[in-house]
Amino acid sequence: MSTLDSKIPAGSLDKKWTDYKNKVALVNPANKRLIDVIVIGSGLAGSSAAASLAEMGYNVKVFCFQDSPRRAHSIAAQGGINAAKNYKNDGDSTFRLFYDTIKGGDYRAREANVHRLAEVSANIIDQCVAQGVPFAREYGGLLDNRSFGGVQVQRTFYAAGQTGQQLLLGAYSALSKEISKGTVKMYNRHEMMDIVKIDGKARGIIARNLVTGEIERHSGHAVLLCSGGYGNVFFLSTNAMGSNVGAAWKAYKKGAFFGNPCFTQIHPTCIPVSGDHQSKLTLMSESLRNDGRIWVPKKIEDAKAIQQGQKKANDIAEEDRDYYLERRYPAFGNLVPRDVASRAAKERCDAGFGVNPTGQAVFLDYAAAIERYGKIEANKHNIVNPDKTTIIKLGKDVVKEKYGNLFDMYMQITGDNPYETPMKIYPAVHYTMGGLWVDYELMTTVPGLYALGEANFSDHGANRLGASALMQGLADGYFVIPYTVGSYLSKDIRTGKIPTDTPEFEAAEKEVKDRIDKLIANKGTKPVDYFHKRLGKVMWDKCGMARNEQGLKEAIEEISVIRAEFWENVRVPGSANEFNPELDKAGRVADFLELGELMCLDALTRRESCGGHFREESQTDEGEALRDDENYAFVSAWEFTGDGQEPKMNKEELVFENVKLVQRSYK
């Protein structure tokens, strides 16, 4: 078993990051001009890291497969970004954000990394305000906050229901400034195909120009992977269709350990599946749980009538509605963490109380919020004894201002008006807490290869709290990597330009071309999506919201069969030397077919329930996740041992010195 050095600084938790910054090795400005850094991905983590490093003086190359960095999937985040500023004077603090994140992740995250994230969170808001991000503000001009799941304070900053878009535009503006100066060279429509190692260090990449098909070599003194998560292994997810695991998976096969691959998050508020025609699912922001109430009918006959189209939501009397989250978790109600809310919805639907034709949906109701806001507005306008119509109109105006784009999106997709009738929602794959294993400096087990944002495993444990993804991506890019990468690059100031005409680059390029040629030459009869859908069904059924030993063993066998059939019978039209989206997709699905097996293996070996990883054999009498801290308080870091060989699991034992390991309770 390989030794994992997490490089956690000594000292008290609240001093570790400060002491690290005070002592870390630096690169002087003149020497930074001698250093090349490659950044893969242009979302929040990638754009913020690239802009920060370029402004410091490094030469930066950025690669994204989209036509513009503005199209990165970070743009899809809706609800907000957390920060411990205590603007609401409700008891928030750096420690409370740290504790909520550790608890929300079911005590499966590294304390030092999480506390650092909480420390820099306030800086992120100041940075983004300075960039002009239009956060929502109260009447007096102060930044507004709202509630999110898993916490009892209001710490989420937001820009209506498009926070990710606004934050990405802020980071993109910083990146664009560096592009115009020439310190960043931007490669749009390029996909990283492999990592190149020289003398054990990451020294470059092989990339493919997705427009021309040309294979390119690019060298650098360090490579930063900011390529996002791997939720599309399930085929149907809230991720953009192009989101993939390719960059991280290539790094894994070049020696970077993969941490906790089975830790995937199911988001409770998504528009339900409507049929086999769908290629992705649509997220309705968790911010909607801030004001909405989730319910199903109390009576099974009412649920059956709704499923059969004989009744509608508004036909169910108030006393006949089961607000099951409020009933089961009175302290947090509708704001329990995502994994808890998702399992509760599944339990109600499995019991027959679902509210759409498939029985796989629950209601998210805004009637009470509209009335509450309407009464407040009537008071503000000094309207005495307002009638119900006036209250509803005023309330709808408030809801439209706070959530209007989300309501419009729901209406356009479903045809239902959520101002008049409750939304229908159901859990769906959303985020992956697993990712490349990194140490405190965000370096993988390959020297010079870093992973930032959702591409790494580090901050969220077994379940991510809502509004923390944007926080981590920007924290890693703006406030962590500019310090930590310098520690490594300070030893490279005499290395000089790294040539690309070396045997290592040649071998990597040949491997990439051989794989592409194999896909093109394969004269199968089935399209790529045929295999991706089969994989997704296996993953959802047997490694989704609930897992058990038998199902996981079956999944491993079934995925092996699908993978063999893929390489025998996949059909990729066109050629390699042209714009060929089906070829791009084929390479990504090939990676998913390997990753899926590792995810199931990881889930099989972790014989406990924690956060989003719910083993049916390990649950409390009330159906909650039951951890086994004695045997599983560790990070599973998987090591590639060769194609066709079972990977080796390494462990990073998690040490908790500042929080007490207890059974999570949101009651």
Automatic annotation (TrEMBL):
- Enumerate the cofactors the protein uses: FAD
Q: Flavoprotein: present as a keyword of the record?
A: yes
Q: Which residues form the signal peptide?
A: none
Q: Which residues form the Fumarate reductase/succinate dehydrogenase flavoprotein-like C-terminal domain?
A: 532-666
Keywords noted in UniProt: Flavoprotein, Oxidoreductase
| Claim: Iron is one of the keywords in the record | no
Q: Where is the FAD-dependent oxidoreductase 2 FAD-binding domain?
A: 36-470
Q: Specify the protein name.
A: Fumarate reductase/succinate dehydrogenase flavoprotein subunit
State the species of origin: Wandonia haliotis
